[in-house]
TrEMBL record:
Keywords: Lyase, Pyridoxal phosphate. Its EC number is 4.3.1.19. GO terms for biological process: isoleucine biosynthetic process; L-serine catabolic process; L-threonine catabolic process. CDD domains: Thr-dehyd (cd01562). GO terms for molecular function: L-serine ammonia-lyase activity; pyridoxal phosphate binding; threonine deaminase activity. Pfam families: PALP. It comes from Pseudomonas putida (strain ATCC 47054 / DSM 6125 / CFBP 8728 / NCIMB 11950 / KT2440). Its cofactor is pyridoxal 5'-phosphate. This is Threonine dehydratase. InterPro entries: Ectoine_EutB (IPR014333), Ser/Thr_Dehydratase (IPR050147), Ser/Thr_deHydtase_PyrdxlP-BS (IPR000634), TrpB-like_PALP (IPR001926), TrpB-like_PALP_sf (IPR036052). It comes from the Bacteria. Belongs to the serine/threonine dehydratase family.
Length: 330
């Protein structure tokens, strides 16, 4: 029996519904035309705080004891988890501290500060930020809520799988952005419990894909973190990973890896064809289709995991992708 099951997902759904939106699932005419099977976008870019991370963070806050609530929580985050945890903590009247590395874009840092959390910018990698968060947990008695390797966080992300199963019971394949694997584990375990035939594929950038390399090695391995357009997919899975490595290994059908140009092209596609402004991590499922790495077996659901891109950066990416005149994907 896995560490988290659909039962925990159902409990989580009830615990987070006051704060978390049920997001829309929309047919993409242009991607359906491209694939010749129906393709849907699950729009977590329209979730409150701009990403699915609010699901897991809200469920983790709901799971605190009253003593833990009183002392507060701490985390390390590439941005979206920190932002979501700050939002969920503020809504529950819990103090939050967020440790971030210098790679995190300034728009995300500002958004977290604006939610009232204490922000610590430390080091050059997600691992450095995590080390500082662990120190604060130890020394100040704060409860550490990691971005993915935590049962309540995984159960919260699993509520997204419940929604997909309800919104599109005929779904055949789901493309899920993959970093630490909390999103992938949660969505897959819920979906496959309800719809056993569904295939779930994990999608990452080729640069620094920690889970992909760990799956290949058969155990969690360290991977050097490098800058990528999919900044929310950066960081390791933890050499002492407790839950997400095993869950991902159990549920994953395929790993799909992408180069940076294809991520930019997918952001351009989202902008021109779907009228969506999304971050690189949120675009990888679209990129997997556009690079023809997915079988034409539908319906296909793409989890558009987040929209928190710096607007100036987005504009640069779009202009460059247009200028380079990579083939139009309409
Ligand atoms: C965190 C994040 C992911 C990856 O989630 P994991 O649980 O770490 O695999 C994907 N997309 C966005 C927008 C994220 O913020």
């Amino acid at each position: 029996m896995p560490a988290v099951t659909v039962r925990e997902a159902l409990i989580a759904r009830d615990r987070i519904k006051h704060l978390v939106r049920e997001t829309r699932m929309e047919l993409s005419p242009s991607l359906s035309d491209f694939m010749k099977v129906p393709v849907y976008l699950k729009l977590e870019c329209h979730q409150a705080t701009g990403s699915f991370k609010l699901r897991g963070a809200t469920n983790a806050i709901a799971g605190l004891t009253s003593q833990q609530r009183a002392l507060g929580v701490v985390t390390a985050s590439t941005g979206n988890h920190g932002r979501a945890l700050s939002y969920a903590a503020a809504a529950a009247g819990v103090r939050a501290t967020v440790c971030l590395s210098r790679l995190v874009p300034s728009n995300k840092v500002a958004a977290i500060r604006a939610l009232g959390a204490a922000v610590q910018v430390v080091g050059n990698s997600q691992d450095d930020a995590q080390f500082e968060a662990a120190r604060l947990a130890q020394e100040e008695g704060l409860t550490f809520i990691p971005p993915f390797d935590h049962q309540d966080v995984i159960a919260g992300q699993a509520t997204l799988g419940l929604e997909i199963a309800e919104q599109l019971p005929s779904v055949s394949q789901v493309l899920i952005p993959l970093s630490g694997g909390g999103l992938f584990s949660g969505v897959s375990l819920a979906l496959k419990a309800l719809l056993p035939q569904v295939k779930t594929h994990g999608v990452s950038m080729r640069l620094g894909a920690a889970m992909a390399q760990s799956l290949e090695a058969g155990k969690p391995v360290n991977v050097e973190e490098v800058a990528t357009l999919a900044d929310s997919l950066g960081g390791g899975i933890g050499l002492r990973n407790q839950y997400t490595f095993e869950l991902t290994r159990r549920f994953i059908d395929r790993v799909i890896l992408l180069n940076e140009d294809s991520i930019a092209d997918a952001m351009l596609h989202a902008y021109l064809e779907e009228r969506l402004v999304i971050e690189g991590a949120g675009a990888v499922g679209i990129a997997a289709l556009l690079t023809r790495q997915v079988e034409a077996q539908g319906p296909i659901v793409i989890v558009v995991s987040g929209g928190n891109v710096d607007m100036a950066q987005h504009q640069r990416i779009i202009l460059e992708a247009v200028r380079d005149r990579r083939p139009a994907r309409a």
